[in-house]
């Protein structure tokens, strides 16, 4: 079922309402879901579990969790713009702003947030609030990204690809940081969880590689399309933006994936 409350202003750089919003979210899932599901199984997603997915995006992980927990479990998926989350009999979808709305009532056995807290300056406070709705012994799974576009090109038909993707990283970083994004947060989550009393804190990483028109290449295409004018304002040459978009769809391009660090911590019993 879907419960819609209102249309709040988004604090995020990328918007689900953008023409490429669905494409960006789908590419994110294609790039990261395989590893995320492994981590969630390790965290305790299983039949009968009660789970919360924060910032569900396209809903691929929320639907997967609903399938895993079965009829005896439950999954709540939240997003500030939840229009792409599909219907599922075991899934409740909430339009929700982490900065202003109370969290759904727990306790939850597993809480997952991917590429969410790094966008929010209030990330430490949100981490504490998420811990508050965990069941004793429950697991919080925080997965964050560390872009490395300047070091991502593995193969390309364009000899300037390294230079173009380096320019993209520089301009995109300027945009993200101006909006409150912490580019180093993925490496700080482990310590932040320990500081807040989480136990058995563990971090693992994932990247993979993807050809043009798939995975992380589509993320580059969607991001450079949505933010084209802002990238140019931040110093990237307009011709390079357009070349990057073309390269991102060329199957001869191969990019190393964006590094995702997945951190699991458990609330004390």
Describe this structure in words.
Helix 1 packs across helix 6 (215-226) and helix 6 runs antiparallel to helix 8. The longest helix has 23 residues, at 21-43. With 269 residues, the chain is of the alpha/beta class. The protein has helices spanning 21-43, 60-69, 123-132, 161-178, 189-195, 215-226, 228-233, 238-248, and strands spanning 2-3, 50-54, 74-79, 91-95, 108-114, 134-146, 153-155, 199-206, 209-211, 254-256, 259-266. Mean pLDDT is 91; it is low at 1-8. The chain has a single domain, classed as Rossmann fold (3-Layer(aba) Sandwich), CATH 3.40.50.150. The strands form 2 sheets. An 8-stranded mixed beta sheet has the order 1-4-3-2-5-6-11-8. It has a 3-stranded antiparallel beta sheet with strand order 7-10-9.
List keywords for this structure.
alpha/beta, 269 residues, 8-stranded mixed beta sheet, 8 helices, Rossmann fold, single chain, globular, disordered N terminus, 3-stranded antiparallel beta sheet, 11 strands
């Amino acid at each position: 079922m879907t419960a819609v409350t209102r249309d709040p202003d988004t604090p995020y750089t990328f918007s689900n309402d953008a023409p490429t919003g669905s494409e960006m979210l789908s590419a994110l899932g294609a790039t990261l879901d395989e590893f995320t599901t492994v981590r969630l199984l390790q965290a305790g997603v299983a039949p009968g579990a009660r789970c919360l997915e924060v910032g569900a995006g396209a809903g691929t992980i929320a639907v997967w969790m609903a399938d895993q927990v079965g009829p005896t479990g439950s999954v709540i998926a939240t997003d500030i713009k939840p229009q792409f989350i599909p219907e599922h009999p075991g899934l409740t979808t909430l339009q929700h702003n982490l900065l202003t709305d109370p969290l759904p009532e727990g306790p939850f056995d597993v809480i997952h947030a991917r590429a969410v807290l790094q966008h929010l300056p209030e990330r430490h406070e949100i981490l504490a609030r998420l811990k508050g709705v965990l069941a004793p012994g429950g697991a919080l799974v925080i997965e964050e990204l560390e872009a490395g576009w300047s070091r991502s090109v593995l193969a390309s038909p364009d000899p300037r690809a390294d230079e173009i993707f380096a320019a993209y990283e520089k301009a995109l970083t300027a945009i993200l940081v101006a909006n409150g994004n912490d580019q180093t947060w993925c490496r700080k989550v482990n310590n932040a969880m320990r500081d807040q009393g989480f136990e058995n804190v563990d971090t693992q990483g994932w990247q993979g590689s993807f050809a043009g028109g798939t995975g992380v290449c589509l993320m580059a295409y969607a991001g450079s399309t949505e933010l084209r004018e802002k990238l140019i304002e931040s110093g990237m040459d307009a011709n390079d933006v357009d070349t990057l978009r073309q390269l991102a769809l060329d199957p001869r391009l191969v990019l190393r994936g964006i590094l995702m660090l997945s951190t699991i911590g458990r609330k004390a019993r």
